[in-house]
Amino acid sequence: MDRSVSRLAMLIAGLAFSPGAGAADRTITPLSSDWRFVQGDPEGAERLATNLEGWSTVTVPHDWAIAGPVAEDAKAGGENGFFPTGIAWYRRNLDVTPVPNRRYFVEFDGIMERSGVWVNGHHVGYRPMGYVSLRYDITRHLRRDGPNVIAVRADTAAAPSSRWYTGSGIYRHVRLIETGDVHVPQGGAFVRTSSITAGAAMLSVSTEIHNSSTTPRGAMVEVVVTSPDGREAGRTRSLLTQVEADRTQLVTREIRLASPRRWNLNDPAMYRATIHILDDRGDVLDSETVRFGVREAVFWADTGFWLNGRNIKLKGVAVHHDGGAVGAAVPIAVWRQRLIALKALGVNAIRAAHNVPSPELLDLTDELGLLVMDEWFDQWNVAKTPEDYHLFFSDWHKRDTADMIRRDRNHPSIVLWSAGNEIHDTAYPVQAKAALRSILDIAHATDPTRPVTMGLFRPNVTGDYTNGLADMLDVVGQNYRETELAAAHRQDPRRRIVGTENGHNRINWLPVRDNPAYAGMFLWTGIDYLGEANRAGWPAISRYTGLLDRTGAAHVRGLERASWWSETRVIHVVRNAIPTAAGPATDGAGGPNQPVLPAMIAVATPQPPVALFDDWTPANAKPHAETIEVYSNCRQVEAFLNGRSLGTLPINANASPRRWAVTYVPGEVRAVCRDQGAGDISDRLRTAGTPVAIRLSSDTGTVGSDFDSMAYVRAQVVDAKGVTVPNAAQLLHFSVEGAGELIATDNGSVTDHRPFASPDRQPRDGNAVALVRGAGDGRFTVRVSADGLKPGTITLQARQK
């Protein structure tokens, strides 16, 4: 063959797989700044021209409710943490000049709630649910001569509409999308692994092509797959297909990946599929990039959950969507800090409770190698609060279910969908089964690759295991009552089972640990969360049920959980203030001499006084009975008091902690792992003296200046030896100088009503935290001062992205 002809053929082939020179690709413009905001419902706020006197300027994401104030008579009550609710409006100019054959969309990741959107005074959409992502085609309402104005009404006035803190406003990201008349609709690209072996994986790439024009259009789909290391791993192009006017055409292409790198917990490898919609000349009409993972996840009835051929127990936690001091508008850096802290305790799975999370949270679980149960509803047709989603379920659940799945189905971290949590419809089996069938049909059609579960609520009472409802589920999930779910599996060994919501006690963990059929469990909860304070009542504003507190610091129960769940050696020593705590635990609860309540009652009632402390500084400084309690997965642990060995104890098969009864003396308690090859794995507590100084630390030395960047600066009140003083009561004052800004402060207290934006914060157990971010490029210093204490300072680097 003539080499010049060969080179020409190669050149033509290359051009055939490349966007044309006249390409008009998709453009995405974030709409984060310059929003005008007013809390209230002024007449004419949606009109093109309206009086903006009294409106402030804000950036979104924005949760106006977190500013407070909290009030005992708040309409939403303790369910919403006694925070305010109501109506608010947002307006913004759109810097866009529409051109022919182009389409313009505004996309919201979440508006809380019952939202309405207008463009130039024209109503373009309404959505009652506050968690679902929205995209509106605004093309026909845009003016070439400008101005173009978008107005958004966010309404949480109907309260309580939830059982936890929801936040209020445009609390997630917003963007303007410009593309061709022929384009991929929202959620219209789906990449799944149809088969996988060690040597190859077959991908099925399904792409919806929507033609918004008034005439039929020819289009092709080109897919280019990039491997985790950035190299091209495969590509394909479809034949030209005709898409009728105002219709959607589905095109599916297969791509073979050689030697696929699987997404795994310890190697969360992500591929990328770049999808181009091309016209008959090869010009780009639209593009979408989908990140995905190649992995095999399956639930078996006899052995639980398997990922890529490895049997894994789901060690999960449920999390609500608030970020503590930042409310519902949560920077991704806050979630990163929290998820890394949970992973350090041995957590490998997250339940998004009881609603879909933000898209960027799922990006993060993909990145970190965390498995996810993505949940859709907290109620169907039967209410839990008078103004909740039950008012809209019959009209909206089909669209909401499909939209939520379509948005999230490319995330490899998601291994399980949940159709609902403790759904009260199950008291009416005919109604409940009809609703569940409707949801399941949509779920299986929209994503045939993942099973669906739900958190059944007292299924033995409503007969879910005998009337057929439970067996409609791909995986049977039950909240609490672990032995009941195990019994349901024994009754029908074909059932695949998972604990969808579980308590923190050993009696909840052991049935899951010791039963191979149990796929795993999800603790209530992973992190303390705002709202649901009606159970404790005023002045509580949040729930104290997490492995972590609101600031992302581990509770004592989190330290204990690490001894059960961590796959690396851990050791934590704490003080148990109950005098008779020494010796083997016989109460089954992990907390000696405390009453063991039925799981649902224990979760629903205020907790007994805390008797476990991460310090050796009791209020009573005189000699008295104390217990040294150690949480560790080491086979042998030796304890010391002021250098004197108290003996070595082996690990307890029933997962109870190791305890040494002592007479309190000030000084140092130390616990050491004595396993062969363990090295110097130990933990200690020291008695604190008089507070003299403030010590600062940060989780990062460099922080960005955009919304999603954040640094945690932790302040500890310490004595002359650097020991944290747990009873310190000085009011701490946080300040920032230089290229940074103070966003919020917190101490994790359930009853602290000081606004989170306040620079002043009382320490709790000697600790408080500031959330800071950069303000441009440069360095900035965080300073914390208090009367009678040496101030603490720390300098961070700000980066403008």
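The above is record 1. Record 2 follows with the same two-line structure.
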Amino acid sequence: MLKNYNILRNLSLKEKATLLSGKNTWETQEIKDSVPSIFLSDGPHGLRKQVGASDHLGLNASQPATCFPTAATLANSWDEHLVEEIGQALGKEAEDLDVQVILGPGLNIKRNPKCGRNFEYYSEDPYLSGKMAGASIRGIQANGTIACPKHFAVNSQEYRRMASDSIVDERTMREIYLTGFEIAIKEGQPRAIMSAYNKINGIYANEHPKLLQEILVDEWGFEGFVVSDWGGDNNHVEAIKAGSHLAMPSLGAEGAREVVKAVQEGNLSEETLNQRVDEILTVILDVPVKKEESPTDWKKHHQLAKEAAMKSAVLLKNEAAVLPIQSTQKVGFIGEFAERPRYQGAGSSMVNAHQLENVVDLLADYPLNVSGFELGYRRGANTDDNLIKKAVELANKSEVVVVYAGLDESYESEGMDRTHLSLPQSQLELLEALATTETKIVVVLSAGSVVEMPWLKNISGLIHLYLSGEAGASASLEVLTGRYNPSGKLSETYPLSYQEVPFGEEYPAMGPYAYYKEGPFVGYRYYNTKKNEVLFPFGYGLSYTDFKYSQLHLMDDGICFTLTNTGHVAGEEIVQMYVTAPKETNLRPVHELKGFKKVSLQAQESCNVFLPFDDYTFRTYNVKEKEWQVNTGLYIINVGGHSRELPLSLEVFKEGVAKEVHVLLSENYQTLSLNQITMKDFETLYQEPVPVFQEHKRQLLHENSTLSDLQYAPGFLGRQVYRVLHRLLKRSQRKGTPNLNLLFIYNMPFRAIGKMTNGLISSEMSHELVRMGNGHVIKGGIRFIQQFFVNKKENKRWRSKEEVMK
């Protein structure tokens, strides 16, 4: 039964078709006196509503908004209440800016630390990701603003992101890449969700019926609408059939014409079209009318951003209790980030911060005996020996130096993946020079993901801020001076080096297929099971106090234990519960996170902590039966402060499926010898032949070829276009600031050109561009011009009959 039958019956086929594509870059189409338009805006960690010409990459100016810490940062707080409170603040600012949909949170799994967009994602673990995202969604939607989690699903690299095919076995997809979305949707009940650019096992995510209908709606009970990522609508009609509702940005008149033609020719039933329109109308018509309330309390939101940054800061090293810094110590501050902070990522999530702090301006507000400040390095620049010399001189007249270091904007951005995990060379040489002094060195690190730390042995203290938002400067000083006792813990594993990352040499996938050969052994699931040494384990973080775990007991619906603060200052501990599956079950990680809680205790105080079991605690996915199940057997419950320190454990017998159907895996998988896995081995996990791309020096382009594929074009002109594009991209990278337009174009397939031009370029014109790239320059050029005028005429004819929709 259609919920909006009375509206639908009065809409023409043309009007209904038009509602399933945007009006422009950010707004949906309205129907006069019938259907209002709603505004969608980027905003995983702060609103980005643009004031001038709109674009989806964050290039043009946007309204000032509170810049909260990014998802990668907030995940280190493990604090659902805090994340929900930030969500409420985002919802409030959205309401004040007349934004109805916030495009976030992002909760893709951090499969590889080089993913350029890891700063927007919570964790390598689906349980933690899902819990954090669910809290964010509840907060955003508390006042009627719509949350739109993204990117659904199996979206793990930026290179070729619009034309990459994620080849992943079903168990891994379910247990790792979908579980976070499942938790977020069931616990947060979002009214929208954004599909990913990529294919999943050969089918685009935006037109994947199993993903969008069978799993999302039928299994999880999703009752919102699906919106494509910007330019991610591949086949508009097939997407509507599969369960997608809104193609963004506007497809222009061509998108609606495709739908009308499909219905008239019987390729799309009007019943399906009515259902999709009804589903999106149900959400749009439920958007509350903007209230005349008090304006945003910017001071309150800034304070919340500061609290979030403090609670997310991770103390990773504190040799000889160098921290907190004493007021009597002479302390020098070094690093451009102390003057111009690195506090957010680059790309569509970039926020115009309402009140951006910097450390240098705040030093006078803290009990510090400051001996001076020196730049030490400049972001995006080569090593400056003079700057290093001045930094060393400052260190020699200080007892402690605090170095603000990390990755600059050119290292982490939407549209590109990192090429390595190292800090910039200028910072490495600075740290090396400072290590020659007798002064204690404390590093305050800013980065959205993992970095290698060969310099760790030369420093005494390390605080990782991640990307801490507009109030990160004061938050860092609160931690450094001991006004706040750090409590954050890592939501991802730090390997000793990138060489330890499974299949790291294959990332990002340069061809059309991205093979998920590691299966469910992502992050700590691999390192802990293989017992590999790591730099910092998942869930790790120090405090200025100590905690003791004792007296673990099994309850009917969970576990209970005693936690004691054995130190001399108050503090917060993030307690973590991991489950080890029965030995006789199919290949499983030795530890899987299944519960956590943040507990606050005064010095010498104790309390009982209860961690409940839930629907996710003991389950596994059976690929033979196509269902979740609990296997009968003896499970081990492990409790502690991080995934490698679990002092308490007990056994619990669970009655479930008596016999698990085992998948016959290769010996390399059984021994977890991932560095020896072959494509033949992978097929034992994937359960069918794996598609393989045969690369040739010259190959015909097609509409799903990316513009970067012009390097293989048969035609000379196509290769020349690639050389120019590649040269411009390299030039922008050398400047230290990524050119987001170039990055987007570089990874964009030909068919997306028409999707991003508001109907100016039709799909037929895109086809002729492919023809030109394949060497038929004259023929393709003539047809391109012909199709330009055909498209212009069709658009004019279509618009002339749209008066009823204005």
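The radius of gyration is 27 Å.
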